[in-house]
Amino acid sequence: MTKPGYAAALVREGGILDSPEYVYLGDDLGATYCSQATTFKLWAPTALKVSVLLYDGPAGGQPQRIAMERQEKGVWAARVNGDLKGRYYVYEILHSTGSVTVPDPYSRAAAANSARTLIFDPADADPADWDQDVKPPFAHPVDAIIYEMHVRDMTIDPSSGVAAAYRGKYLGLAQEGTRGPDGVTTALDHLRDLGITHVHLLPVFDFASADETNPHSRNWGYDPVLYNTPEGSYATDPDGVARIREFKQMVLALHRAGIRVVTDMVYNHTSAWGSASQFSIFDKVVPGYYYRFDSAGNYAGASGCGNEVASERPMVRKFILDSVKYWAREYHLDGMRFDLMALIDKDTMVQVEKELRQIDPAFLIYGEPWTVGTSPLPPEQQITKGHQKGLHIAVFNDHFRDALKGPWDDDHQGGFINGAAGKEAAVALGVAGAVHDFTASPEETIQYVTCHDGMTLWDRVRTSNPENTPDEQVRMDLLGNAIVLTSQGIPFIQAGEEFLRTKGFNANSFNAGDQVNAIDWSLKAKNAAVFRYYQGLIALRKQHPSFRLRTAAEIEKSLKVLRAADHVVAYKLQNGGDPWSDIVVIYNGGATAQTVSLPEGGWVAVVGGEEAGVTPITQMANYYVGQATVPAFSAMVLYKGLFPAGFVKQAAQN
């Protein structure tokens, strides 16, 4: 039917597909393999006809076409007898607008570059001893120390000492005993030496922007294609089950090193949409169903990527829940970070939290509490800061971040750590786990100063403070994460900050090459003192529960701000459950030394200048009574008590 003055448009099914008539609750979507037969099931309620196109290999060849039968709830199914292990398939779907071919949205393995879905025996994809994998002990979210890293960046540089065949791969992170310049530990051994509890892996699901057949291709990976398939560019072979087995080998090695694994999940948008792109999956299966649209009928774009996944729709929510549970169980994951989590409706995230914590009560769950633009998702369903209260889900604390280093969108402005005035109150709010800001408890805030978005901390302090000396810039860097690692909440650091990683001042390196993103392990040898400082701060946090208070009530009882003015934030922690029942922490973000009054008694300094740890510092005074002088751009941590035997006491001359 046509009408003068109106253009032709595709009619999309509305809420009818959300009715119980079309909501399928089964857990068998995708291909279910056994040696006698394989069953295929696809939810495609608007399709007119669906067939399985079965291939012998990952590319080329003529397919065997198997017709699928329409069943209840909009599901199409087919059963093929015989052992199909090692074969590949796509669906051929006839819509009213024409025919399309598409990999299975529930693919768990695929050919290179998402071309076809692989049929495999799950038993073939497990490495040796996978059934013996044991998760490292972990009690509470605030016990986490998160290290954000990119699989390729960590080992692709020859300085990593990783075997050439494994550089930039899952197996590069599974290799032990690697050494870099001057014999420094690298990769897995480095992570173990640093002492972090969790690695946060930038996207490791199948994504579009890296050509899996090109060893030089790379990207951050925030452009999902097949959500339940590990990315093939990090595998030694993008076809077959290598990507599954090697991912599991990486997890197994990290767990054995005492490190839990968090993956970055991007359920808020997809790489492609519509019917034209080879990487469009959802729209080829059920056109329009999986996405939000604005009032004019256009794809909503608050993700900044041209589309928003409509997580609130029942079968989209089911897909997300099925996906997170599959990753958690199949890959023994320990946590997930949700990209632009505010675009995933609150009701879905509540169910995500419930399901994941049933699998692992210690599962770590956090995400970004913002959108890039305006979304049709109602504000009350967006988990922005404050809306996470009581959900046992953490959000990134950009209030704290910006107070520490300056505004995210202006690299030339500084924050508290590099001399900006008037940031003391905001820093004090952050230090207290944001419980007087937007959280109900410290487990709800991710405390950080930098992440993959934006410049590295070392690049940022040099950009915002070009007139300062290199020594002063180093102290600014140290101060930034000294504050993060001694604050209440969940600390989070970016890979390489512990030895002054640079990306050549690139603030958005998602599509830059290895020359920008690869970690240069010679920096660890060059900046060994910086590494020891970070290592010492992590040891301090892990050994002393005063820095890991679990509730707002504990913080109210234990943390008392002593001073928050004139470039200084100082506070006292008093916690009977800590071997050091009384601790004083002082941050000096100013360009001159500051003298701060101390509570009564003698105080032993374990952090000061460019030293940090759990024993008295040695390069400056380490015992104070009455007051302490804190050098410019530095932190000091002191505990009240007797000076420990076996160390040289250097009392301050007050």
Question: Which features would summarize this protein structure in a list?
Answer:
single chain, 654 residues, alpha/beta, Immunoglobulin-like, TIM Barrel, 3 domains, 8-stranded parallel beta barrel, 7-stranded antiparallel sheet, 15 helices, 20% strand, elongated
Describe the 3D structure.
Helices cover 22% and strands 20% of the residues. The protein is an alpha/beta fold. Strand 7 and strand 8 form a beta hairpin. The model has no long low-confidence stretch (mean pLDDT 96).
A few lines on this structure:
Helices cover 22% and strands 20% of the residues.
Number of helices: 15
Structural class: alpha/beta
CATH class of the largest domain: Alpha Beta
| Overall tally of structural domains | 3
CATH topology value of the largest domain? TIM Barrel
**Span of the ends, CA to CA:** 91 Å
Strand and helix map with partners:
Layout: E1 30-33, E2 37-43, E3 49-55, E4 64-67, E5 69-70, E6 75-81, E7 88-95, E8 98-102, E9 117-118, E10 146-149, H1 151-155, H2 170-174, H3 187-194, E11 198-201, H4 242-256, E12 260-265, H5 282-285, H6 314-330, E13 335-338, H7 346-359, E14 364-367, E15 394-396, H8 398-405, H9 424-431, E16 445-447, H10 457-464, H11 470-486, E17 490-494, H12 514-517, H13 522-526, H14 528-543, H15 552-558, E18 559-565, E19 568-574, E20 582-588, E21 594-608, E22 611-612, E23 623-630, E24 634-640
Parallel strand pairs: 10-11, 10-17, 11-12, 12-13, 13-14, 14-15, 15-16, 16-17
Antiparallel strand pairs: 1-2, 2-6, 3-4, 3-7, 5-6, 7-8, 7-9, 18-19, 19-20, 20-24, 21-22, 21-23, 21-24
Helix pairs in contact: 6-7, 8-9, 10-11, 11-14
